[in-house]
Every structure is written in C-alpha cells, then in structure tokens.
C-alpha cells in the first residue's frame, strides 16, 4: 500500500523534520526543486542533452520557493529561463525569499500579471522546453482569482501550442490537494492540467481522487522517510482527518492451498426473473473464478430452465421468496450472499434483502444495483445493515442512498480542504454501519471506523474498458467470492476492486463483462499464485 497524505499531514511531517534538526526548510526546498528537475529529465531524456527553454511561474508561498530553485538549477544547466512571480517579493515566506534573492543574482523577475514578452514560448535553443507551474501547492486555500486563472490558462495554452511540456510542482495550481477538486464555482476548468506533476515524499489524496488532471505523477524523495515513524505515526499524522491508503496490491491470502471445496467457502448469488438473470450469472462466475469453493445461484423457480441451460460449475437452487432464502441460510456453510445484479425491486426482492440482512448469523452480504435501490427506498432495510455488509454504489446509487452526502459532494468546492470523495465515503460508511465501496475511476472504500482506501484506475492504471455493461455485476461477485473465502468486508472490497481493474487492464480494449472473470487466471499467474 502507498500512503496518501493530506496537506495537514504533509505540513506536520515537514514541521517535525525541521523541529528535530534533521533538516532545514531551505534544504527541503532545495531537494524539492532538484527533484522537479530530475523528474523533468527522466520524463523527457532529450531535454537533458542540450539547453532548452523554461518558463517558470512562481507564486507567493513555498510552492513559488520551489519554482525559484527549479529556475536556478535549469539556468545552471545552460537553459534560457524566464521567471514570472505572482505576489509581492517582500512578503514571500523566509525560505522562498532566500531562493528569490538567489535567483535575482542570476536572472530577471517578471510580473506574472504583466505583459507576456514577444517570443516567450518559442522553443529553446535546442527546440524544446517546459512551462513550470509553481504558483500554488498544498497551501491553496481559496479559488484562484479570475485574473490569475485567465493568465495561468494563457501561459498553459500558449506553452502547449508552442510544444512546451507543462510541469506542475506538487499540485496543478487551482486544485485542492486534499480532494483533487478545482476550487471555484466552475469545477472542471481545464486550465490547470499538467503533463507531469512532481510531488514530494508521498502522494496527496488529491493526486488520486477528484479530477487531478495530471498526465503523469512522480513522487520524489526529499529525505523525510522515517520521520513519521521516528516521532510516532500518531503524532505526525494527528492532523489527519482524511488520509487513505492507495491500493497497490491485494491484502489477504489469495492462494488455495490444500483443503476441499468447503474450505474455500460457499457464496450464494441471488438473481432475478427469466430474461434478467444474466447479471446474477456474471456475478456468480466472478465469485467462482476468484476462488470461492462453491457458488450457488438462487433464482425464482420460473427462471430455473434458463439458468440450468447456462450454468455448469455454478450450482442452481430455486429461491421463490424470503422464506426460501431463510431456509437455505440454515446451512452454515453458505457464508456469503450477494444480492442486486438483475434482481428486480418488487416485493419478492424486498423480502430477499430483508431475509439476507436479518439473518441471525450476520453473514457477509454484498448489496449492489437493485438491492441498493431497495435499501435506499426502505428505511427498515437500511436499518438492518450490519458490519459484515458491503455496499457497492456507483454515483447514482450513492446519491439515492445518501442524498445529503452526495449533495455536499456535488456542491462547488470553494475553500480548501474541500469535501472529498474520501470524506463522502467515510460519512456513508459510518452512517450505514458497514463497508461502502464508492465506484468510479477513483473508487474509494471506507469502513465505519474510518479506515479508507483508494483504488485508482487513473493514468498508467487507467482501465476505460471497465465502463461496460455488467462489469459492476462481476465486481459484486468478486467481492462475494472473497467474503466466502474468509476475507474481511474491507479487505474483500479492496482486493475485489483491485483485481477487477487488474483483470480489465490485462484483457485490454474490447473487454466485455464476461471476460473479467476469465482474465483473473492470467492476473493470478502473473502474481505468482
Ligand atoms: N511541506 C513540505 O514538506 C514541503 C513543501 N514544499 C513546497 O511548499 C508548498 C506549500 O507551501 P505553502 O504552504 O507556502 O503554500 P503555497 O505555496 O501553496 O501557497 C500559499 C500562499 O498562497 C496564498 N494563497 C492561498 N490560496 C490563494 C489563492 N487562491 N490566491 C492567492 N493566494 C492564495 C496563501 O495565503 C499563502 O500565502 C508545497 O506545495 C511544496 O511545493 C517544498 O518546498 C518541500 C517541502
Ligand atoms: K503548483
């Protein structure tokens, strides 16, 4: 797992490092600037070979301080560097001011809001270059003012037009680093995209949730490793209210070693009426492929012929109503239930949800799709949710289940730190009293105790092919299968989500939902299982 930090945590770690005497703020700034230059050369190796053009935009805080270091180092490489400052140099914080003065010894400081010199964006002597955005980083507290925004957009557009690469220091300016959201009334403003974003020590939450608008993210070490451990994690991270883990692998044991089929659990997937049972079958196949020892599809009696014709390894049982389900659940070996995909939202289905949630054993239950609609509609079902449940809503279902939380998330973010998808998912999990997996390219998983993880399918891990009919049904099945195997609800949701993206990536373009369970075996093999 990679730790995602909030800006408050990052500030606390930096302050602790400085207070301990292990490093000064000025040294950290120098390392940060050096890290940006290294990252530029690593990203575009040709730039290292010959002098180029850099346009560096510095802001009024320490992000601007990093910009002065970058400008100086590139100039030392022989580059042509033009530097623009937004703000009053006399009011720069001390380390930024020191670097401003060092820069003044070698180059000119232009006014960010003043005239843009002719030919500024012409490629450098060797035909290439960068525009470096060091206006605001983790200190952004409010929306950029209109003039700054317009000017930043102009720099970016002209730089892009002239073929210069855009580099953001720490965060593209204008984006809140705790939520990844653009601060301001009109979210989605595209003026702050960056080809490359270079951050320090650990990524921030806002690099992985929201709309980070970053082509590539590089995290540079600035010598802060171990500081949180040395001072006790709790102390360094006390400020945190919304940090999370980025899921970079699975948690729990995915291997099957010895035992018989019942050792690996028995998942029961409930499906809908004839002609609508495909979604349930997809979930069932997902549960089986991910390693549940046994999977049974429970369907209405009149859907038996259709399902019998379509299933082999998945077992089939008629489940007419809630009573029939309760009878099935007398068998303690059935240890995970999944309801929702293609289920329907009538009286039978309401009974099924009530029977699954009201079960005295408090079995693990995944609720998806139609089951979420039922839980949203009927407060008495919502009240039955318990800690062994996993809810897997997409944005629409989330809004039906938690309208006030969704409304808060949809409202424009006007101050930092803004209400984030992490905050929303945490609030939802606390209210529901169970694990919530809030789907999206930036899927967030939270448990009622506040534990939170992000399963990001962004940038190099993008899996656009997952936006296909039935893909969510397979995910529900994956999670049910892992629950059957004994994973905790939180680990099942994290691992199921992670494998879902991996399977899609391994299969690639042309993916349909049926391919997802099949791609798992390749993923498992690659993982050495
Ligand atoms: N925290 C750390 O460990 C390190 C931080 N460094 C850099 O320092 C940055 C954080 O520095 P700061 O805390 O000074 O924050 P910033 O440099 O991001 O900006 C803060 C300044 O901008 C003002 N401001 C905030 N929003 C504004 C808006 N919309 N319009 C106009 N002014 C606005 C604030 O009042 C403050 O003066 C990081 O992003 C990073 O680039 C690095 O030097 C290395 C180490
Ligand atoms: K920036």
TrEMBL record:
<dbReference type="InterPro" id="IPR030677">
    <property type="entry name" value="Nnr"/>
</dbReference>
<keyword id="KW-0456">Lyase</keyword>
<feature type="binding site">
    <location>
        <position position="473"/>
    </location>
    <ligand>
        <name>(6S)-NADPHX</name>
    </ligand>
</feature>
<keyword id="KW-0520">NAD</keyword>
<keyword id="KW-0630">Potassium</keyword>
<dbReference type="GO" id="GO:0046872">
    <property type="term" value="F:metal ion binding"/>
</dbReference>
<feature type="binding site">
    <location>
        <position position="472"/>
    </location>
    <ligand>
        <name>AMP</name>
    </ligand>
</feature>
<comment type="function">
    <text>Bifunctional enzyme that catalyzes the epimerization of the S- and R-forms of NAD(P)HX and the dehydration of the S-form of NAD(P)HX at the expense of ADP, which is converted to AMP. This allows the repair of both epimers of NAD(P)HX, a damaged form of NAD(P)H that is a result of enzymatic or heat-dependent hydration.</text>
</comment>
<keyword id="KW-0067">ATP-binding</keyword>
<protein>
    <recommendedName>
        <fullName>Bifunctional NAD(P)H-hydrate repair enzyme</fullName>
        <ecNumber>4.2.1.136</ecNumber>
        <ecNumber>5.1.99.6</ecNumber>
    </recommendedName>
</protein>
<feature type="domain" description="YjeF N-terminal">
    <location>
        <begin position="10"/>
        <end position="230"/>
    </location>
</feature>
<dbReference type="InterPro" id="IPR004443">
    <property type="entry name" value="YjeF_N_dom"/>
</dbReference>
<feature type="binding site">
    <location>
        <position position="170"/>
    </location>
    <ligand>
        <name>(6S)-NADPHX</name>
    </ligand>
</feature>
<keyword id="KW-0521">NADP</keyword>
<comment type="similarity">
    <text>In the N-terminal section; belongs to the NnrE/AIBP family.</text>
</comment>
<feature type="binding site">
    <location>
        <position position="279"/>
    </location>
    <ligand>
        <name>(6S)-NADPHX</name>
    </ligand>
</feature>
<dbReference type="InterPro" id="IPR017953">
    <property type="entry name" value="Carbohydrate_kinase_pred_CS"/>
</dbReference>
<dbReference type="Pfam" id="PF03853">
    <property type="entry name" value="YjeF_N"/>
</dbReference>
<dbReference type="GO" id="GO:0046496">
    <property type="term" value="P:nicotinamide nucleotide metabolic process"/>
</dbReference>
<dbReference type="Pfam" id="PF01256">
    <property type="entry name" value="Carb_kinase"/>
</dbReference>
<feature type="binding site">
    <location>
        <position position="133"/>
    </location>
    <ligand>
        <name>K(+)</name>
    </ligand>
</feature>
<keyword id="KW-0547">Nucleotide-binding</keyword>
<feature type="binding site">
    <location>
        <position position="342"/>
    </location>
    <ligand>
        <name>(6S)-NADPHX</name>
    </ligand>
</feature>
<dbReference type="GO" id="GO:0110051">
    <property type="term" value="P:metabolite repair"/>
</dbReference>
<comment type="function">
    <text>Catalyzes the dehydration of the S-form of NAD(P)HX at the expense of ADP, which is converted to AMP. Together with NAD(P)HX epimerase, which catalyzes the epimerization of the S- and R-forms, the enzyme allows the repair of both epimers of NAD(P)HX, a damaged form of NAD(P)H that is a result of enzymatic or heat-dependent hydration.</text>
</comment>
<feature type="binding site">
    <location>
        <position position="173"/>
    </location>
    <ligand>
        <name>K(+)</name>
    </ligand>
</feature>
<keyword id="KW-0511">Multifunctional enzyme</keyword>
<dbReference type="GO" id="GO:0005524">
    <property type="term" value="F:ATP binding"/>
</dbReference>
<dbReference type="GO" id="GO:0052855">
    <property type="term" value="F:ADP-dependent NAD(P)H-hydrate dehydratase activity"/>
</dbReference>
<comment type="similarity">
    <text>Belongs to the NnrD/CARKD family.</text>
</comment>
<keyword id="KW-0479">Metal-binding</keyword>
<comment type="subunit">
    <text>Homotetramer.</text>
</comment>
<feature type="domain" description="YjeF C-terminal">
    <location>
        <begin position="244"/>
        <end position="527"/>
    </location>
</feature>
<dbReference type="GO" id="GO:0052856">
    <property type="term" value="F:NAD(P)HX epimerase activity"/>
</dbReference>
<feature type="binding site">
    <location>
        <position position="394"/>
    </location>
    <ligand>
        <name>(6S)-NADPHX</name>
    </ligand>
</feature>
<keyword id="KW-0413">Isomerase</keyword>
<feature type="binding site">
    <location>
        <begin position="62"/>
        <end position="66"/>
    </location>
    <ligand>
        <name>(6S)-NADPHX</name>
    </ligand>
</feature>
<feature type="binding site">
    <location>
        <begin position="137"/>
        <end position="143"/>
    </location>
    <ligand>
        <name>(6S)-NADPHX</name>
    </ligand>
</feature>
<dbReference type="InterPro" id="IPR036652">
    <property type="entry name" value="YjeF_N_dom_sf"/>
</dbReference>
<feature type="binding site">
    <location>
        <position position="63"/>
    </location>
    <ligand>
        <name>K(+)</name>
    </ligand>
</feature>
<dbReference type="InterPro" id="IPR029056">
    <property type="entry name" value="Ribokinase-like"/>
</dbReference>
<dbReference type="InterPro" id="IPR000631">
    <property type="entry name" value="CARKD"/>
</dbReference>
């Amino acid at each position: 797992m990679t730790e995602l930090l909030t800006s408050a945590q990052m500030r606390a770690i930096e302050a602790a490092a400085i207070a301990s005497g292990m490093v000064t703020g000025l040294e950290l700034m120098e390392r940060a600037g050096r890290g940006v230059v290294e990252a530029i050369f690593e990203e575009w190796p040709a730039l290292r070979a010959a002098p180029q053009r850099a346009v560096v935009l510095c802001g009024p805080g320490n992000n601007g301080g990093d910009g002065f270091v970058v400008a100086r180092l590139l100039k030392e490489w022989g580059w042509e560097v033009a530097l623009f400052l937004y703000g009053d140099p006399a009011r720069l914080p001390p380390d930024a001011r020191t670097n401003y003065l060092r820069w003044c010894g070698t180059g000119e400081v232009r006014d960010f809001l003043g005239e843009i010199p002719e030919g500024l964006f012409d490629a450098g002597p060797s035909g290439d270059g960068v525009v470096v955005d060091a206006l605001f980083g983790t200190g952004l507290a409010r929306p950029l003012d209109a003039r700054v925004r317009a000017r930043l957009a102009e720099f970016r557009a002209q730089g892009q037009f002239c073929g210069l690469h855009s580099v953001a220091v720490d965060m593209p300016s204008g984006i809140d680093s705790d939520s990844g959201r653009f601060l301001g009334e009109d979210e989605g403003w595209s003026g702050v995209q960056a080809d490359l974003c270079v951050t320090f020590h650990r990524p921030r939450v806002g690099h992985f949730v929201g709309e980070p608008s970053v082509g590539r993210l590089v995290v540079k070490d600035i010598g802060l490793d171990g500081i949180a451990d040395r001072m006790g994690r709790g102390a360094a991270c006390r400020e945190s209210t919304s940090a999370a883990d980025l899921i970079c692998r699975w948690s729990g044991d995915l291997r099957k070693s010895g035992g018989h089929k019942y050792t690996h659990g028995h998942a029961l997937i409930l499906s809908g009426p004839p002609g609508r049972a495909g979604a349930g079958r997809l979930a069932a196949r997902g549960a089986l492929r991910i390693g549940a020892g046994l999977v049974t599809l429970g369907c209405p009696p009149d859907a038996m012929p259709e399902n019998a014709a379509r299933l082999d390894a998945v077992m089939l049982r008629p489940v007419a109503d809630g009573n029939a389900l309760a009878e099935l659940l007398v068998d303690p070996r059935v240890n995970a239930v999944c309801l929702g995909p293609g289920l329907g939202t009538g009286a039978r289905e309401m009974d099924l949800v009530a029977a699954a949630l009201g079960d005295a054993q408090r079995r693990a239950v995944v609720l998806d799709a139609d089951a979420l609609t039922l839980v949203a509609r009927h407060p008495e079902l919502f009240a039955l949710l318990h800690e062994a449940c996993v809810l897997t809503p997409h944005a629409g279902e989330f809004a039906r289940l938690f309208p006030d939380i969704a409304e808060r998330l949809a409202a424009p973010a006007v101050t930092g730190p803004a209400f984030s998808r992490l905050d929303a998912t945490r609030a939802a999990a606390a209210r529901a009293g169970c694990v919530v997996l809030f789907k999206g390219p930036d899927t967030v998983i939270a448990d009622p105790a506040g534990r939170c993880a992000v399963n990001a399918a962004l940038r190099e891990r993008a899996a656009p092919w997952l936006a296909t009919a039935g893909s969510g049904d397979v995910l529900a099945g994956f999670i049910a299968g892992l629950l059957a195997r004994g994973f905790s609800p939180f680990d099942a949701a994290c691992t199921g989500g992670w494998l879902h993206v991996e399977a899609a990536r391994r299969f690639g373009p042309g993916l349909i939902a049926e391919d997802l369970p099949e791609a798992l075996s390749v993923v498992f093999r690659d993982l050495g299982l």
